[in-house]
């Protein structure tokens, strides 16, 4: 068994991001090739994203209403044989990775310290 990562396809010239408007699958679902996975919306149209392979959904890359970058991770499927995810490149899906990254700036900022009182 391998993992196949499906990235947000380039759906039009000049389109850099899309809004995820609907999931047609959930974690644990088996999907067939060409089965609709999700609907995404650009400024001009809503587009259905089909599965390029047969597999079982193991991770969703975002929530409905989330803006996603073209080329970003959309979904992960467990597939028969070898997937397209290279060993050691097992980064968590974008949805899971966003929370720790957002918390980092607050932790990196030094705590304000008051200056010592001058002696008289």
From TrEMBL:
Cofactor(s) needed: (R)-lipoate
Region (Disordered): 83-120
Domain of life: Bacteria
Record keywords, A-Z: Acyltransferase, Lipoyl, Transferase
Alphabetized InterPro entries for the sequence: 2-oxoA_DH_lipoyl-BS, 2-oxoacid_DH_E2_comp, Biotin_lipoyl, Single_hybrid_motif
PROSITE patterns on file: BIOTINYL_LIPOYL, LIPOYL
Biased composition (Low complexity): 91-112
One Pfam family in the UniProt entry: Biotin_lipoyl
GO molecular function, one term: lipoic acid binding
One Gene Ontology cellular component annotation held by this UniProt entry: cytoplasm
Domain (Lipoyl-binding): residue spans on this chain: 3-78
Subunit structure: Forms a 24-polypeptide structural core with octahedral symmetry.
Protein name as it appears in the record: 2-oxo acid dehydrogenase subunit E2
Provenance organism: Alcaligenes xylosoxydans xylosoxydans (Achromobacter xylosoxidans)
């Amino acid at each position: 068994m391998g993992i196949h990562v499906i990235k947000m396809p380039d759906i039009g010239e000049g389109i850099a991001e899309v809004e995820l408007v609907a999931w047609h699958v959930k974690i644990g679902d088996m999907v067939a090739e060409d089965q609709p996975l999700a609907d995404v919306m650009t400024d001009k149209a809503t587009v259905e994203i089909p599965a390029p392979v047969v597999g079982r959904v193991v991770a969703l890359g975002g929530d409905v209403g989330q803006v996603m970058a073209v080329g970003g991770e959309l979904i992960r499927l467990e597939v028969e044989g070898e997937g397209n995810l290279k060993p050691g490149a097992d980064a968590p899906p974008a949805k899971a990775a966003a929370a720790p990254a957002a918390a980092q700036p607050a932790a990196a900022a030094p705590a304000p310290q008051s200056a010592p009182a001058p002696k008289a």
